[in-house]
Amino acid sequence: MKKFAEINSENLVIAVVVAENINDCKLSMNGVRFIETFSDGTNGQDAGMGFSWNEEHQIFCQPQLYPSWTLNTNTGEYEPPVARPANEGHKQEWDEDNQKWKRIKVIADDGSILDPAEITYWNPSTSSWE
Known about the structure:
Layout: E1 2-7, E2 13-19, H1 22-28, E3 33-37, E4 52-54, E5 59-61, E6 70-71, E7 78-79, E8 91-95, E9 100-107, E10 113-123, E11 128-129
Antiparallel strand pairs: 1-2, 1-3, 4-5, 6-7, 8-9, 9-10, 10-11
């Protein structure tokens, strides 16, 4: 069996179906277009609901989380302008306004709860949280 992504007129994946071949999809669904998707990275990401089809690069792409993130046309993943630091067990999130990774530490090194939480920003130049 193969997997096919149903693509709407805006190149968004609206369904993923399993079928023997693409002709089965066209007969059983009323979608505009079907494109085979693979889990091995053959055409970018393995398509899922909310993903998009990039016609120019012929790949499925995960949703773009932030405007500053750029598409890796080999993997179909959007990547931040600053590489994500190694996770040390604390919540990390991208701060689009400051173009930096933000770490939110709620548990101190001694195990106590921090109130308020400690917020630090990743400095890629020094490879440290500041």
